[in-house]
Amino acid sequence: MWIFLDIDGVLVPEKKFNSPVSQEDLLKFDPVCLKIFEDVLQRYPKILVVISSSWREIFSFESIRPLFSPSIAKRVVGVTPFLDPKIIHQYQYLRYQEVLEFLRQKKALDNPWVAIDDIRDHYPPNVQVVVTDAYNGFDALAALALELYLLAM
Questions:
Q1: Who contacts 109 (Cβ-Cβ below 8 Å, separation ≥6)?
Q2: Taking burial as the number of CB atoms within 10 A of a residue's CB, which of 2, 53, 71, 138 is the most buried?
Q3: CA 110/CA 108 separation, integer angstroms
Q4: How far is CA 50 from CA 22, 25, 45, 86, in A?
């Protein structure tokens, strides 16, 4: 089972930017959002996390992974691939295509997965997405939605 995780609007809520953010705080997750997310993951030890966020364009995987607690960080296994810039304009749902390419590369297209994102429109309507409120990030409501999805799997 895979979780494809966005970061801005999920583990970094927009409310973080209501006041100035120092340079060293830019590369930090909201501790409340992170705890709620990790509390769900602790109950499902076989789930692997893949970063699908635009953070992968700015920060290296090696700098993102340690932002999680050690027990969860070892289950954060990579980032979605960058697609050929010559063809990305062909896709309505670019982030979804990146997820599919990751699964193709891992020979895991038949594996269950869910995306967590604050923008539903990154994925087609028939795809399971836990949508967070961008201002608040991953909260109790998002945790419940994720938990219900995982229980059904």
A1: 100, 103
A2: 138
A3: 5
A4: 27, 22, 15, 24
Helix (H, G, I), strand (E, B) or coil at 4: strand
CA-to-CA distance for 8 and 95, rounded, in angstroms?
A: 14
Amino acid in position 131 = V
Q: Residue 146 belongs to what H/E stretch?
A: helix 140-152
CA 111 remoteness from chain centre? 17
The widest CA-to-CA distance across the chain, in whole angstroms, is: 44
**For helices 31-42 and 140-152, angle between their N-to-C axes, nearest 10 degrees:** 20
Query: What are the φ and ψ backbone dihedral angles of 49, each rounded to 5 degrees?
Result: -115, 135
Query: What does pLDDT average to over the chain?
Result: 91
What is residue 120's predicted lDDT score, i.e. its pLDDT? Answer: 96
Residue type, 58: I
Residue 24's pLDDT band, with cuts at 50, 70 and 90, is: low
For residues 16, 11, 118, 19, the Cα torsion angle rounded to the nearest 10 degrees is 0
Q: At 5, which helix (H) or strand (E)?
A: strand 2-5
